[in-house]
Amino acid sequence: MTNCVNVIPVFVTSPGVNMIKRLGAISLLSLVFSVGSAEAAGLPGVKASDKNPVPACATPGRLMAYIKDRNPKLDPRFESIAADYMRVGQELKIRWDYAFFQMIVETGSLSFKSDGRSGDVQPKQNNFAGLGATGKGERGESFPDVTTGVTAHLQHLLMYAGEKIPDAVAERTRKVQEWGVLTSWQKSIKGPITYTDLTRKWAPGAGDYGSNIEATAKRFYDDACHKPDPAPDLVAATEPRSEQRTDKAAAQAPAAEKVSGAELARRSVAEARADGNTKRSSLGASNLAKAAQPAPEAEAEAPASIQSAVNILNPPKAETPEKAAPEKPAPVQQASVGALGKPVVTTAAKCRVWQASYGGQKAIIIRSKSDGYVNYTVLDVNEGVEKREAEAYIEAYAKGGEQFAEFGSQNQALDKAFDLCPEG
Description:
Blueprint: H1 2-23, H2 25-31, H3 60-70, H4 81-92, H5 96-107, E1 113-114, E2 117-118, H6 146-160, H7 171-179, H8 183-188, H9 195-202, H10 209-222, H11 248-252, H12 261-274, H13 285-291, E3 305-307, H14 309-313, E4 333-337, E5 343-347, E6 351-357, E7 362-370, E8 373-381, H15 386-397, E9 402-407, H16 410-420
Parallel strand pairs: 6-8
Antiparallel strand pairs: 1-2, 3-6, 4-5, 7-8, 7-9
Helix pairs in contact: 3-4, 4-5, 4-6, 5-10
């Protein structure tokens, strides 16, 4: 039994231990920042839950900006790796943000170097946790692409948390499960297994390993997490890859050009201008803002801009003081693709797409009905007050409306709105 206990670190914890040895413990500390305690104070549980969620500010865009700040020469192959961590992490229901921070520590911010010297694991291996790298030049496992490497890392973490991983990507994960060397340790943990528990087992010979992960996370959440998301469109890359349109229209026209909602609006404007038809088709925001009386509980200010997708690119002239009555919404002009692939401007018959903004980077689609039309409004909202701003908008401008869906960026929401309402 004693020998078995001594064997466990060799097979199970070697990834973390040897990666630290390869990068150099002292140099690795300089990549993070020195902390007084040699052990993490209290990292979160490995599994995500309602009580242990990934903070909303941990977006792929912010995480990529954070790692690029640490490694300005980031290999272009890793440009969207944070989106892979988010997508696969959500599928596995794991705290993927701390897995990302662990990856930063393991790989020296994806440089795979320390003091200019390359480690045993090379970037082309897509091995972000040193799986199978046991030191003395042993490079460990290789994975065909970044996504597979991320999957291998997250599956290995989930295995530590006590989950059985069927058809595991990494050979190391399959072998550890086969050996069953984690079973007794997992049973000794009272409550959910945390990253603190994991790091003690993953790298028992490196006292600063957990502290380095904690320090890396703290720096992100204390600083980068509060900055504007520089790449909100990266959230689109987190959607499941198997999610594809299966509606009848798509099946009947498989060769049709894929046009995003934003591009559809731009083409519509260009076509309208070419035809000399630039008639305003907004919600009459300036007048509505004066006339509407939101409920007392709706504390949010009126949106700074409430315009249709067409009006965004063709701003209306200022309202004349004499015009007091709210303008009746006109159908938004839209572009459909003709037989030759040329956009054709038409007028919506049963639905319309609008856009409104409180200035935030997230977006909510609000569905409402008026004048026999179904209106889909893409409302830009601010993180943390999304619900309040949406409710205030509905109270003021879309009586009886409902929040239909929430998105990480305006473009994603526009795409969905035009999917729901191709005519408008």
